[in-house]
């Protein structure tokens, strides 16, 4: 059984996408303020203190025990108006223990794009070993996320990750939900949401670099965090040191557009999973052949479109079935496959009219989907995605796009192409930065990743013409370095971080 062997993290992956942007209402595309206007931010004095914010702060306690110190960095809400309102961005730092070999600060971003790296900072230091000891490892919550002036729109349920479902009625429900959630956010935060962009997060990173007194900044970014890293390289190439972009996305397709073409990869992964599960029909009872298992999945989806499935306290309809399966296909480990088979078995029993109770993992997933418990994280995630890139506001465009692709992928195409709150969101204040430069970076992708598809990583590689790329062959995994336990990747990344020298050529390797 293949396992992630060192740095363990539960990854929440953005799995819903929409079409290409069609307009940029009220877009402010002027250059941001220059160095002189931002000097007070770059030169601010940082007040380092305990990371523990209150008696119940388990994350802060863990950081303190690991020797971390925390502070808040003041940045402009709008970099075009640096004399206006400000917000604070929270960072935690574990200082380099190898002072003789110290390289400088390295910011870690887990993607999401609203996953906080704070809880994982001590594990990252341990997993990176002697390499990590040479860096001041920095966890940064992006603006409006976690500890960084967070937003929470008070959502009663989540649209993410949801599907447009099997018919127009389900699509209409998702449209109404997306409109309602967007309006809730606009009422509370409409004046700042246009500034929740990747461009501004990159600018925040550079303010942090300046406030740390560092001439250059290193970076380890995963998934959506690879786009942030590429934007920093575009905006501040002379201030970038060692940049690792793991599970990279296409920088020409920021926002929710990024996964709109991944339904075929998800379908292929589902077939691979079904083939494995069929060999253990005595255990899972989903079917003794690949086709039989896939038929079970199809039946679950079809019944959920006719009537919601009762799973514990939840009514699971056809908008939830695709994400429940796609979320279990991100990794190719046998343990993950078994977990998904257990979930599929529960859903199949519910489709047969049985009363079923979800396990702990499924309970957590459904709670985040159908209740307000995940409001803060989902609000923040959506704010960063919608604030980075505008999306079509034509509801019928989404429906036509779904219908045009439904036959090719009845389960996953309506998920990948679903409408999102971005269709009703306050317009971003500026356009995304176009990434095209020769700054050096090391790109890592698993060949079988179903969220950051290999062609996406290759597109990032082309956009960063000075980069090198490591492809881990024969693996379906999202986020590889330190997480998969693949020596050929870990050794190459560590060598680059230690020396600053990229590999002489692109490499494809296996575990």
From TrEMBL:
<feature type="domain" description="AB hydrolase-1">
    <location>
        <begin position="106"/>
        <end position="321"/>
    </location>
</feature>
<dbReference type="Pfam" id="PF00561">
    <property type="entry name" value="Abhydrolase_1"/>
</dbReference>
<dbReference type="InterPro" id="IPR000073">
    <property type="entry name" value="AB_hydrolase_1"/>
</dbReference>
<dbReference type="Pfam" id="PF08386">
    <property type="entry name" value="Abhydrolase_4"/>
</dbReference>
<feature type="signal peptide">
    <location>
        <begin position="1"/>
        <end position="26"/>
    </location>
</feature>
<dbReference type="InterPro" id="IPR013595">
    <property type="entry name" value="Pept_S33_TAP-like_C"/>
</dbReference>
<feature type="domain" description="Peptidase S33 tripeptidyl aminopeptidase-like C-terminal">
    <location>
        <begin position="417"/>
        <end position="509"/>
    </location>
</feature>
<comment type="similarity">
    <text>Belongs to the peptidase S33 family.</text>
</comment>
<protein>
    <submittedName>
        <fullName>Peptidase</fullName>
    </submittedName>
</protein>
<dbReference type="InterPro" id="IPR029058">
    <property type="entry name" value="AB_hydrolase_fold"/>
</dbReference>
<dbReference type="GO" id="GO:0016787">
    <property type="term" value="F:hydrolase activity"/>
</dbReference>
<dbReference type="InterPro" id="IPR051601">
    <property type="entry name" value="Serine_prot/Carboxylest_S33"/>
</dbReference>
<keyword id="KW-0378">Hydrolase</keyword>
<keyword id="KW-0732">Signal</keyword>
């Amino acid at each position: 059984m293949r396992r992630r062997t060192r740095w363990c993290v539960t990854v929440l992956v953005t799995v819903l996408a929409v079409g290409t942007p069609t307009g940029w209402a009220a877009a402010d595309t002027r250059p941001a303020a220059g160095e002189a206007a931002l000097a007070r931010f770059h030169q601010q004095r940082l007040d380092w203190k305990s990371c523990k914010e209150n008696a119940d702060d388990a994350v802060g306690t863990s950081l303190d025990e690991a020797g971390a110190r925390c502070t808040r960095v003041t940045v402009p809400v709008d970099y075009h108006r640096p004399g206006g309102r400000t917000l604070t961005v929270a960072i935690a730092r574990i200082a380099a223990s190898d002072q003789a070999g110290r390289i400088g600060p390295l910011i870690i971003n887990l993607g999401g794009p609203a996953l906080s790296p704070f809880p994982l900072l001590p594990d990252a230091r341990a997993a990176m070993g002697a390499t990590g000891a040479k860096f001041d490892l920095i966890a940064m919550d992006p603006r409006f996320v976690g500890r960084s002036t967070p937003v929470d729109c008070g959502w009663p349920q989540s649209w993410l990750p949801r599907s447009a479902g099997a018919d127009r009625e389900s699509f209409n429900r998702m449209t109404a939900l997306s409109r309602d959630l967007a309006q809730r956010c606009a009422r509370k935060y409409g004046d700042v949401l246009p500034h929740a962009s990747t461009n501004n997060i990159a600018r925040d990173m550079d303010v942090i670099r300046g406030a740390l007194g560092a001439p250059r900044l290193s970076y380890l970014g995963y998934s959506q965090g690879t786009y942030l890293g590429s934007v920093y390289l575009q905006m501040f190439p002379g201030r970038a040191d060692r940049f690792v972009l793991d599970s990279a996305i296409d920088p020409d397709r920021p926002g929710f557009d990024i996964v709109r073409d991944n339904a075929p990869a998800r379908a292929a992964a589902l077939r691979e999973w079904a083939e494995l599960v069929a060999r253990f029909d005595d255990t899972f009872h989903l079917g003794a052949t690949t086709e039989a298992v896939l038929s079970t999945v199809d039946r679950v989806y079809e019944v959920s479109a006719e009537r919601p499935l009762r799973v514990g306290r939840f009514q699971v309809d056809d908008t939830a079935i695709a994400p429940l399966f796609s979320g279990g296909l991100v990794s190719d480990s046998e343990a993950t496959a078994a977990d998904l088979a257990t979930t599929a078995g529960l859903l199949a029993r519910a489709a047969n009219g049985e009363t079923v109770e979800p396990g702990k993992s499924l309970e957590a997933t459904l709670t985040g989907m159908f209740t307000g418990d995940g409001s803060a994280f989902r609000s923040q995630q959506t704010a960063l995605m919608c604030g980075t890139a505008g999306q079509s506001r034509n509801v019928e465009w989404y429906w036509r796009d779904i219908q045009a692709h439904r036959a090719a992928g009845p389960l996953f195409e309506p998920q990948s192409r679903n409408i999102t709150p971005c269709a009703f969101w306050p317009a971003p204040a500026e356009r995304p930065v176009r990434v095209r430069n020769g700054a050096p970076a090391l790109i890592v992708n698993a060949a079988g990743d179903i969220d950051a598809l290999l062609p996406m990583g290759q597109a990032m590689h082309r956009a960063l013409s000075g980069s090198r790329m490591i492809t881990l062959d024969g693996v379906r995994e999202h986020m590889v370095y330190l997480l998969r336990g693949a020596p050929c990747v870990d050794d190459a990344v560590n060598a680059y971080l230690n020396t600053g020298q990229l590999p002489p050529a692109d490499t494809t390797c296996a575990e």
